[in-house]
Amino acid sequence: MAEDRLPARYQNHTAAPSSDRLPTRGVSDAPIHRPKELSFGGSAATREELWQRLSPTLHEKVNQRLGRLLQWWATEVDERVSAVGLGTRALIVLSPTVNQAGRPATEINTINLDEASFRSASVTETHGATPPGMAHVSQTAPPREPGSPPHQRPAPTPALTHHVDHNVSGFLGQLPTRAQQLLQDPFLNASDELRYDYFYYRTGHGHNIGGATLYVWCYFTDLRTVTFCAGHGRDYQTPRGPASWELTCWRADVAPRSRGTSQ
Fold first, then answer.
1. Fewer Cβ in 10 A, N or C end of the chain?
2. Which residues have C-beta within 8 Å of that of residue 219, sequence separation ≥ 6?
3. HSE of 232 in the Cβ direction (CA atoms, 13 Å)?
4. Domains identified in the chain, total number
5. Alpha helical stretches, state H, the chain
6. The whole model's pTM is what?
7. What is the pLDDT of residues 124-147, one digit of tens each?
8. Domain region containing 61
9. CA distances from residue 3 to 44, 164, 216, 262, 263 in whole angstroms, order as listed
10. Looking at the domain assignment, is residue 210 inside a domain?
11. Euclidean distance between CA atoms 94 and 57, whole angstroms
12. Considering the domain boundaries, does residue 121 fall inside one?
């Protein structure tokens, strides 16, 4: 679900220490996806307005579990609020549901994280007419092991590709290559436990000169690792995508014995 509205207040975050940085470049077998044209519409409410529709009790539970807030989004589906928050102690997903009495309720799914394992990377990119997600793809042959023949069979397709549906792959295709890799690298041999979600909205209109600003959020988890990416692309125009990106990608280990809890 995407929205075309005024921007929510965008929080600045303290950068991770240099020792806790993810590599901004590197060899990766992660699939690089083709972009799908994004659709826009939906609620005109900001994420803060949607958050305030949830109960104070729910706010308190989330705040107790998150640790230091890093990023979050909230959206409206069928007049109900859903939200995702990444903190230094947990990834929390709030989903509309119905309780045993048949009344509207919100499910809290908490994936506890090892706070000491957090790493991050800034991904910035500026390009012209190059399709989204392809600006940093090397035009030279990939490195080979010493003594290996100059032509080898392509690497096998990662199992991950069988667990990512066309909607999320089309969204990922909008992102810079390195952001796609950082989101997917831990899950190349993904099992059926892989979970993911994404959200985006824009300010302005992508058909105008000067384009719009596209805000994006996305996470992946297999209940062993969590990856999360958030930020914005400027001068977004349909169907070219943004002309430049400023993103932050995070990665953390799921805490031992934490398989997610719902309440």
1. C
2. 84, 86, 91, 196, 197, 198, 226, 227, 228, 229
3. 16
4. 1
5. 47-52, 56-66, 166-172, 177-184
6. 0.79
7. 998 753 444 433 332 223 333 334
8. 2-7+33-137+156-256
9. 7, 23, 11, 28, 28
10. yes
11. 13
12. yes
